[in-house]
Design goal:
By secondary structure, the protein is mostly beta strands. The chain is built from one helix and 18 strands. 34% of the residues are buried.
């Protein structure tokens, strides 16, 4: 109930993240972002400064090492200060080569060097620094598919990318990919988990 401070704005929760203060953030498929105080149970419906049509659905959340909350969705990418709620938006601009690639943002991760990586629905995988795209990998570069559904950075500086066409690994700038032909049970890789000891759950 969007008008109830003790209720989520929607039951359709796509992603959850926890910030440094312990607050729980929920990205909603209906386009909302909620912050839950675990101590009181109070829910804050966060205004991202975009109307419903501009915002669309939210698909991904990530808290980086500086404490910024990154929010990905149909609108593109947003950086939210979890204390002040100040928000900066990054979107696709066809006239600017260093802008976000086209397609909704479905996955976000930060690698061992602090680089932010964004996976999009149809635009492949991009590295972002100071709001500008510094590198992009697509199927033409060896990515398993341009629809990226999940991204995982492991401590050994390897980036794993789950796509609609299989799993890709980016290691020292080199891409390699795996699909059902190499033994995956499905080419659609929705989620990734680093289990340690060189084990990866898909």
């Amino acid at each position: 109930n969007a008008s109830d401070a003790a209720s989520l704005a929607s039951d359709r929760v796509r992603r959850v993240a926890i910030d440094g203060s312990g607050a729980v953030w929920a990205a909603l498929l209906d386009g909302g972002l909620d912050r839950i105080d675990p101590a009181t149970g109070e829910v804050l419906h966060v205004d991202l400064g975009l109307d419903a049509e501009q915002l669309g659905s939210l698909y991904s959340l990530y808290v980086d090492r500086k404490g910024l909350l990154w929010v990905g969705g149909n609108h593109g990418l947003s950086a939210v200060d979890t204390r002040t709620l100040k928000t900066v938006h990054f979107t696709h601009n066809p006239e600017e080569a260093a802008s976000l690639t086209e397609g909704s943002v479905r996955a976000i991760a930060q690698d061992a060097s602090g680089n932010l990586w964004v996976g999009t629905y149809g635009g492949g995988l991009s590295s972002i620094e100071a709001g500008r795209v510094t590198a992009t990998f697509t199927a033409a570069d060896g990515l398993a598919h341009d629809v990226v559904l999940s991204v995982l950075a492991t401590p050994d500086a390897t980036l794993w990318i789950g796509t609609l066409g299989g799993l890709s690994r980016l290691e020292q700038g080199v891409l390699s990919s795996f699909s059902t032909e190499q033994g995956l049970p499905s080419d659609g890789v929705l989620s990734l988990l680093d289990a340690g000891a060189d084990a990866l759950w898909i």
